[in-house]
Design goal:
Elements (H helix, E strand, L loop, with lengths): L1 E2 L1 H7 L4 H8 L3 H8 L7 H11 L3 H4 E2 L9
Antiparallel strand pairs: 1-2
Helix pairs in contact: 2-3
Length: 70
């Protein structure tokens, strides 16, 4: 799953540390999310979307696997 979290966070001029504090997660969690190494729980995705006043789909981009590639 891809995401626009880093782009959106920087547009709002918020540091990873500030976002982590608001969301009650570690800064490392924010970093891992932004780098695509970690997919958020549904609860965390909702918290992020609410914080930025956006829909989950505006932040997180789900792309289905190509069924022929399986």
């Amino acid at each position: 799953m891809n995401n626009r979290l880093e782009e959106i966070r920087k547009q709002k001029q918020i540091t990873q540390e500030e976002l982590a504090t608001v969301l009650e997660v570690s800064r490392q969690t924010i970093s891992s999310l932004e780098k695509g190494r970690y997919n958020p729980s549904i609860m965390l995705a909702f918290k992020i979307a609410r914080y930025f006043n956006m829909s989950i789909e505006e932040i997180f981009i789900y792309e289905e696997e190509d069924k022929d590639a399986r």
